[in-house]
């Protein structure tokens, strides 16, 4: 813990000192309001802070600083402002915020600190604060880590409250009325005699005032919007086709392109001949896409054309020779490297949990009291429904990028670096996302569009160009969820509960891979707590408890996949919990509850889950249930999966889920996100894997990398509890427990303990 804490301070100090030294940032000051910049507002619009625009007619638009990728963030973030601004939610408009450091996400960094969510010691809070400071100093406008609400909860409520108070002050100044006698209602200031002045009428005056720095916030008992399920703000535009995704961008005189990069990821392109491709009518040019020495995307080419289909066809005619991959050529070879890292690193690695004396506990353990297991999971793709794409225009030394991105400020800085354009001359226009899951937190698709626009400028002459990847290019050039291998052992006490647990997880470093791609000049040394998330930070009380993470040296690009390390550690940790309960001849749910007795939130979740699922009901032949629990992203989540044996295989019939995130600002949306996470997790458990042959990914489309279909989807029942003391997120926590709950249900049904994903390798599903 000390080692990790020291590293946290080093990172935080370096970032803070760097920002102050270059005059870019003072830690106690806010970033400038991007809406106040020249040209940011339309005629008649006014702004009081980065989150609010007010029109002369009284219309209010709330800026949404996080990516909307189906998780409903547009609605809940708008509600935070509307509640305090005193404007009905259905009366406000929403707009995707521009790329700006003002919209930094500190919570993603602080909540990702290497401490358990339930650890609220002074040292843990210092660590969180230090990491949150890094997020602020770096100005990371990123959507990820299920952190949107946690980060916005204070910021956006305060923005709404400050604006409300500023409108009151403007009305007081205009009418010579004591401020204490002025109230607000539904977007209007109300004077003592009942006269109303709309916010639009007061906007010009209010924009000249300095808003209060600490406005009074409404307490939950006075909320009219927050805490209630709302109609989603993005439902109408999405259902009518009005919503604009990256692939929908349509600009005047636009050209089109597609890319082909080395299918051996990161490998070079040794040669290419585009003679035949250029003969196709409508082809404009073929461009070498190989980057500089520090770039990690490998070699490749892009075809420029007058339409996307022509670009796709022409790309197939380019005669190209690809260099070798910088990693073993086969899946078996890759997993062998990870397994060797595990075996060589046991006893070493980064220990984020190291309670008691584990080695001493095992020194005299009777053999019949020891439980051991080894697990393995494959690489996984994000498989977003909208393939990677971006549109770029390079003209007169300025660059515009249109993209569905989870990280607009990273896109801006990276594309500026790519083209040599000053960051202030790069404009990022964010769109809706056709699936993100972490994939669109990357910058490659936007960077490639900027590269095509700049390198093709000789023929484009300032025309915008839309670069769309084929589904096959997308699937085979992902930043994958890494494969992982883990080894576990436990010593059971006389009561059947473990007195010692020793777990070791090996996989490639996600943090190292992301930094290597995004900030190649920054060293990616130090521990990576994502390797052990979902294992070291679980609320199980065991006196001797050690969990270590071991980096495996495999140079395949890996990245943030929905729930990150929790996705595989949920399977490892909760499968092992089930194995211990079985050896101890104890009920799996009662076994878990006994170990979590010091955490009332967890016990409450499991009790409610048992009641919902009928856990204690008499077992029925051919039908079985499995349970699992994972605390991830601050959401205490328990699940039960029920499976049925049929003549066509095993059918997943029911899933019950209880999630406690503390205060639920929109309960229906929280439940929907948990449902979504369950389907995402079960999809991976049923049959998804990324495999390699000759260095190339073998799964190229949904025919070989399928997701759960509607006909296979179980009945999912979700209950949202609000007992947790600290707020959590909801976008990812449904995924981790769904996978082991299914595996444990299969064991209960068949007696077959499956320790390698996907489960379909050993049993057949309907």
Describe this structure in words.
The strands form seven sheets. A seven-stranded mixed sheet has the order 10-11-8-18-15-16-17. A five-stranded mixed sheet has the order 13-21-20-19-14. 32% of the residues lie in helices and 21% in strands. The chain has 766 residues and is of the alpha+beta class. The relative contact order is 0.11. β22 (623-632) and β23 form a beta hairpin.
Short description, anyone?
By secondary structure, the chain is α+β, with helices and mostly antiparallel strands.
> What Rg, in angstroms, do the CA atoms define?
27 Å
Extract low-pLDDT stretches.
1-25
Main beta-sheet strand count, sense and barrel state: 7 strands, mixed
Task: Report the structural category.
Answer: alpha+beta
Distance between the termini: 46 Å
State the helix count: 20
State the helicity in percent bands.
25-40%
| Mean pLDDT score | 95
Tell me what portion of residues adopts beta-strand conformation: 15-25%
Which sequence of strands runs across the widest sheet? 10-11-8-18-15-16-17
Shape: globular
Tell how many strands the DSSP assignment holds: 27
């Amino acid at each position: 813990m000390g080692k990790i804490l020291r590293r946290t301070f080093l990172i935080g100090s370096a970032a803070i000192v760097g920002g102050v030294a270059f005059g870019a940032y003072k830690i106690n000051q806010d970033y400038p309001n991007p809406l106040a910049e020249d040209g940011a507002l339309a005629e008649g619009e006014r702004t009081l802070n980065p989150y609010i625009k007010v029109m002369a007619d009284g219309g209010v638009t709330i800026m949404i600083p996080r990516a909307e990728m189906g998780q409903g963030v547009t609605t809940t973030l708008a509600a935070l402002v509307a509640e305090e601004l005193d404007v009905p939610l259905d009366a406000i408009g929403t707009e995707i915020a521009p790329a700006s450091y003002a919209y930094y996400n500190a919570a993603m960094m602080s909540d990702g600190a290497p401490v358990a969510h339930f650890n609220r010691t002074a040292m843990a809070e210092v660590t969180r604060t230090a990491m949150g400071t890094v997020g602020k100093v770096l100005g990371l406008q990123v959507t990820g880590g299920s952190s949107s609400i946690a980060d916005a909860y204070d910021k956006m409520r305060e923005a709404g409250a400050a604006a409300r108070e500023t409108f009151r002050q403007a009305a007081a100044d205009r009418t010579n009325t004591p401020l204490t006698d002025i109230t607000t209602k539904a977007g209007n200031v109300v004077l003592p005699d009942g006269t109303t002045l709309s916010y639009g009428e007061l906007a010009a005056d209010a924009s000249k005032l300095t808003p209060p720095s600490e406005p009074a916030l409404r307490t939950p008992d006075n909320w009219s919007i927050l805490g209630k399920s709302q109609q989603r703000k993005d439902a109408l535009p999405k259902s009518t086709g009005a919503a604009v995704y990256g692939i929908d961008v349509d600009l005047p005189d636009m050209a089109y392109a597609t890319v082909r990069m080395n299918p051996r990821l990161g490998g070079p392109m040794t040669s290419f001949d585009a003679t035949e491709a250029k003969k196709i009518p409508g082809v404009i040019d073929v461009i070498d896409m190989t980057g500089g020495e520090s770039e990690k995307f490998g070699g490749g080419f892009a075809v420029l054309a007058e339409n996307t289909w022509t670009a796709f066809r022409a790309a197939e005619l380019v005669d190209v020779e690809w260099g070798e991959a910088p990693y073993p050529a086969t899946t078996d070879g890759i997993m062998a490297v990870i397994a060797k890292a595990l075996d060589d690193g046991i006893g070493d690695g980064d220990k984020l949990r190291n309670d008691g004396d584990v080695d001493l506990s095992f020194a005299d353990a009777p053999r019949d009291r020891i439980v051991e297991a080894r697990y393995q999971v494959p690489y996984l793709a994000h498989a977003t429904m909208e393939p990677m794409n971006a549109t770029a225009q390079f003209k007169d030394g300025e660059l515009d990028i249109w993209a569905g991105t989870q990280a607009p400020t990273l896109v801006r800085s990276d594309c500026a670096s790519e083209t040599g354009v000053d960051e202030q001359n790069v404009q990022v226009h964010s769109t809706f996302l056709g699936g993100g899951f972490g994939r669109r937190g990357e910058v490659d698709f936007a960077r490639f569009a900027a590269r095509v626009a700049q390198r093709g400028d000789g023929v484009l002459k300032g025309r915008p160009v839309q670069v769309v990847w084929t589904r096959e290019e997308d699937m085979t050039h992902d930043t994958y969820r890494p494969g992982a291998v883990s080894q576990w052992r436990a010593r059971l006490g006389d009561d059947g509960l473990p007195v010692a647990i020793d777990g070791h997880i090996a996989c490639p470093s996600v943090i190292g891979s992301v930094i290597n791609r995004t900030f190649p000049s920054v060293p990616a040394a130090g521990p990576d707590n994502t390797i052990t998330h979902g294992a070291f930070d679980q609320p199980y009380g065991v006196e001797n408890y050690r969990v270590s993470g071991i980096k495996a040296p495999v140079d395949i690009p890996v990245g943030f996949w929905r729930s990150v390390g929790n996705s595989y550690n949920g399977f490892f940790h909760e499968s092992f919990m089930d194995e211990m309960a079985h050896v101890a001849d104890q009920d799996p749910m009662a076994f878990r509850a006994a170990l979590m007795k010091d955490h009332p939130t967890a016990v409450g979740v499991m009790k409610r889950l048992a009641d919902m699922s009928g856990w204690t009901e008499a077992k029925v032949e051919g039908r079985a249930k499995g349970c699992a629990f994972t605390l991830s992203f601050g959401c205490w989540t328990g699940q039960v999966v029920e499976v049925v044996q049929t003549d066509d295989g095993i059918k997943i019939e029911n899933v019950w889920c209880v999630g406690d995130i503390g205060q639920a600002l929109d309960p229906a949306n929280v439940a929907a996100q948990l449902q979504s996470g369950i389907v995402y997790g079960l999809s991976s458990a049923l049959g998804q894997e990324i495999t390699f042959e000759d260095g190339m990914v073998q799964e190229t489309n949904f025919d070989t990398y399928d997701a759960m279909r509607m006909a296979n989807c179980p009945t999912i029942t979700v209950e949202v509890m609000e007992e947790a003391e600290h707020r959590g997120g909801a976008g990812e926590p449904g995924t981790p427990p769904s996978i082991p709950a299914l595996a444990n249900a299969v064991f209960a049904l068949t007696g077959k303990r499956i320790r390698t994903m996907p489960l379909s390798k050993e049993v057949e599903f309907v």
